[in-house]
Here is the input.
Amino acid sequence: MPFHIVENDLTKMNTDAIVNAANAMLEGGGGVCGAIFRQAGWDEMQAACDALSPVAVGGAVTTPAFGLPQKYVIHAVGPMWQGGNRGEKELLRSAYRSALLEAERLGLSSVAFPLISAGIFGYPKAEALSVAMDTVREFLMEKDEREMEIYLVVLDRSAVELSRKLFGEIERYLETNDYSDAPRFHRFSRREGEYDQIREHLRRQERQLEQGIFAAEAVAPSCPVGAIEAHDECAAPTISLDDIVRIKRESFSERLFRFIDARQLTDAQVYKAANLDRKLFSKIRSRGDAYRPTKGTAIALAIGIGLGVDETQELLSAAGYVLTDSSLSDGIVRYFLERGNPNIFEIETALYRYGQATLSSAK
Here is the structure.
């Protein structure tokens, strides 16, 4: 998937470039910036930076990575936090976008970011994260042909903060809908309710199959006793039980593309809104009925198409999955689906913050 949140040491990322949250003079400092300079080779990196400084706030420049395992270091200058009323948001967006455009100019396929300005520059983490996600999402959505693996690298989950409003809404939803003690980020064990829901889902599929059989029988003309069996009007129906089962049980890909066609969406619109890469989506098209997605990919596609809860359940069922009422991750997904117009990056961030596997963690 094009966008990932990962716990790692930024300097050890296996990407074409990493981004340094730099100051305007591009001087080596402490924290992650200091680690980048030390591992690159302080004197070499500082000399390369001196030749390019100063850089305006919101801008970005590129140097070689020297002793680092990446090819390049992109130095992006974020703003100091001054209360939020001095254009900090626009400057931070510009810093991310400038770095992304540098990566594109260099023809890079992957780049890893820290949370720019959220350290000693004092930008509140929740707001900084929101700006990062929005900017990356807009960048990826702008052009169909634009493809790049973009990583947001954090030291641990506590570095990822949701806005108070969003966090409060998710908490209330989880508590109201009996998703146990979610504020303490516990995983849930299976409850009987999950199996009840699965059983009901299977019973519903059986009823749909039976209705298909009855409908097929109803369209066959009734023949008088003794009628010639080969007569056109009285011949036995040619549709078999196997045909009915095949018709009624769409494959995942058939159901997926039915939803896409009904909304008149392009492939690029769907896989970008689902945070999927083009190669994976092409595999779904090429493999057809043989393709079976992970649950995370199926949910991401439902979000990319813009499905509601019921339609998401319908799409998932074609792959043998269901959103349950005893899974914390499913509860978070349902919250966003019920809220309407879900943003895949927001969902990924919420799942990550609650200690759940992200949709992008399994392709």
